[in-house]
Amino acid sequence: MKTNIEIALAVALIALSLIMTIVVLMQEGKSAGLGTIAGAADTFWQKNKARSAEGRLVLFTKIGVALMLIISVVLDLGIW
Predict the structure, then answer these.
(1) DSSP letter at 29?
(2) Is residue 58 part of a domain?
(3) What is the mean pLDDT of the chain?
(4) Which residues constitute the domain of residue 72?
(5) How far is C-alpha 51 from the geometric centre of its chain's CA atoms?
(6) Has residue 31 been placed in a domain?
(7) pTM for this entry
(8) Which Pfam families match (predicted)?
(9) Is the pLDDT of residue 6 over 90?
(10) Domain count, the chain
(11) Considering only CA atoms, which of 73, 50, 61 is closest in space to residue 19?
């Protein structure tokens, strides 16, 4: 029989999966910056990308993936 904690973790994992799907789809593709190969200099936008909305999305993706991994391992091992 499932405990309340296992049910809560499963619901959190499903919700986090849906949120992560949306966050990944919102991110800009890596091929968007290929115009700089021709020798164009770095722009102010590119230098400060980590502080932009795109940078926050990348950070949120990394944190979300780590949380998903931890929750999945906890549910699989049945620690509760």
Answers:
(1) P
(2) yes
(3) 83
(4) 51-80
(5) 16
(6) no
(7) 0.71
(8) SecG (PF03840)
(9) yes
(10) 1
(11) 61
